[in-house]
């Protein structure tokens, strides 16, 4: 069992590094970059599909909130959609095709726990209840690669304001669907399904914590975690949970998916920090997917000015893993 448990993650970790894969990927990316340049305008090419049944498609594209600007070009959609982590559909980076079996309608988000007004939202209602906006965010995976993505969604805080957390609520626990018939990865019993993630209530209330319903000017493609995922851009990518079905306000710190598998490597906080190495590799720089470039990694993935104050007084915590 421990052998299997470990192997699950190591597949992903090795994929980020072997020279042969790296070179192949570069060759692939070179040929796709020219086509990809078009995509930054929001024109679509293959990027994983969204379910046609969704009645909220007319809400896209949403207006861009220009507060969130980038220091680098967007990752073309088709490059992004062929380099993903979505273990429910397999432990490789090429899961777009497998993820097509994800059914996103009907889809209910349950919001419960320590709140005054628990509530279930049908996804199409959720997208109409909260005004959608587009934000350009960096994304930094713990495996030392990065992308930049035009997400569409709304701040998690807007949802919390509607359900009104009670005073005992200290953490926000989020959970992905659990359906091994639909998602073959969930038949791999050595993973602690369903995928669980969490934030402190202060983190969840930060304006940057974004609930995502779309990307590249359209409803969210399946491989990106349709129909609802999180984007917390100052943290390693595994915190940005995909295909969320439940958000619970709780008193205790939730045990997260990767923490259950390997707590020494993937902790609760997981804030990006170039100076704190992963036990098996450096975090000083990152491969910018689609460009063949490496860039120095930034503290809090470049969002330090906005989020550093969340961690005042928490120096005793393992904040950067
Ligand atoms: N449910 C679920 N959420 C998940 C994952 C996953 O395997 N399952 N992978 C995480 C990791 S490690 C990363 S880097 C991002 C990848 O998101 P992307 O494919 O849109 O880049 O999703 C995160 N959220
Ligand atoms: Mo990741």
TrEMBL record:
Needed cofactors: Mo-molybdopterin
Gene Ontology terms: cellular component: periplasmic space
Gene Ontology MF term list: metal ion binding; molybdopterin cofactor binding; oxidoreductase activity, acting on a sulfur group of donors, quinone or similar compound as acceptor
Domain Oxidoreductase molybdopterin-binding positions: 103-258
Keywords on record: Metal-binding, Molybdenum, Oxidoreductase, Periplasm, Signal
Binding note for cofactor: Binds 1 Mo-molybdopterin (Mo-MPT) cofactor per subunit.
UniProt record similarity statement: Belongs to the MsrP family.
Biological role stated in the UniProt entry: Part of the MsrPQ system that repairs oxidized periplasmic proteins containing methionine sulfoxide residues (Met-O), using respiratory chain electrons. Thus protects these proteins from oxidative-stress damage caused by reactive species of oxygen and chlorine generated by the host defense mechanisms. MsrPQ is essential for the maintenance of envelope integrity under bleach stress, rescuing a wide series of structurally unrelated periplasmic proteins from methionine oxidation.
Subunit architecture: Heterodimer of a catalytic subunit (MsrP) and a heme-binding subunit (MsrQ).
Protein name, as recorded: Protein-methionine-sulfoxide reductase catalytic subunit MsrP
Gene: msrP
